[in-house]
Design goal:
Layout lengths: L11 H4 L2 H26 L8 H11 L9 H13 L6 H12 L4 E6 L4 E7 L6 H11 L5 E7 L3 H4 L4 H4 L4 H6 L6 H7 L3 H6 L4 H7 L6
Parallel strand pairs: 2-3
Antiparallel strand pairs: 1-2
Length: 216
């Protein structure tokens, strides 16, 4: 936020007068409002910093209807995809659009010219973008190719990394649909046995920061 000190710019002989102090306070208030408004205008010039108002404006222009649970970042990602989906419509362009909409690590793309098929798998942390991804890609794909957009659910080989004493806290539905947070610490925890976890004295508060997370 911009720091405003109007009184500093007044001549010294009037800076201590109460009347001019009040005038300076009024100017400070109005200038801060103006500075904040300018900052919002600048933020809305770029897709990465769109405010709620900027996102809503572009959604109206593009004809996008956001979901009731969509976050601001998800709405920004969706708008990026619409702007990225211009000509030329190539496989590389398709990959760029998916990266803009879902994030570079949240999808897989398989284009098979021999079977005239395009299969896109989206990870669970981009679940709210499935319908929009389909709409954008449908407009981009050749008319003689079939498009399939599906969610990338957790499979046995992923869940098998975690000890049973951790997985036992979840239902089958939770494990299938859960977004698994993977990082260096989580990889280490995934290699622990149940005995390791008990012996290390890990609490659920600790596990929540380094291992599989339970959504309450």
């Amino acid at each position: 936020m911009m720091t405003v000190d109007t009184l500093h710019w007044f001549p010294l002989h009037i800076q201590n007068m109460d009347a001019f102090k009040e005038v300076a306070k009024a100017y400070d208030y109005l200038l801060k409002i103006a500075a904040d408004d300018i900052s919002i205008v600048l933020d809305n010039q770029f897709l990465d910093t769109l405010t709620e108002e900027g996102v809503a404006l572009r959604e109206r222009i593009l004809g996008i209807v956001p979901g009731p649970t969509d976050s601001l970042e998800e709405r920004r990602q969706r708008i990026k995809g619409y702007y990225a989906s211009d000509l030329p419509y190539t496989e590389n362009k398709l990959d760029d659009v998916l990266s803009a909409m879902c994030g570079p690590d949240n999808y897989s793309l398989d284009v098979d010219g021999s079977t005239y098929s395009i299969v896109v798998k989206i990870k669970l942390n981009a679940i709210n973008l499935v319908n929009n991804v389909y709409d954008v890609l449908y407009r981009m794909k050749p008319s003689n190719m079939m498009l399939t957009v599906i969610l990338m659910y957790n499979r046995h080989e992923i869940l098998a990394l975690y000890p049973h004493c951790v997985l036992a806290f979840y239902t089958q539905g939770e494990l299938r649909n859960k977004v698994l947070e993977m990082n260096d610490l989580c990889d280490n925890v995934a290699n622990f046995t149940c005995g390791d976890i008990y012996n290390k004295g890990y609490t659920w508060e600790i596990m929540d920061t380094i291992g599989i997370r339970k959504v309450v």
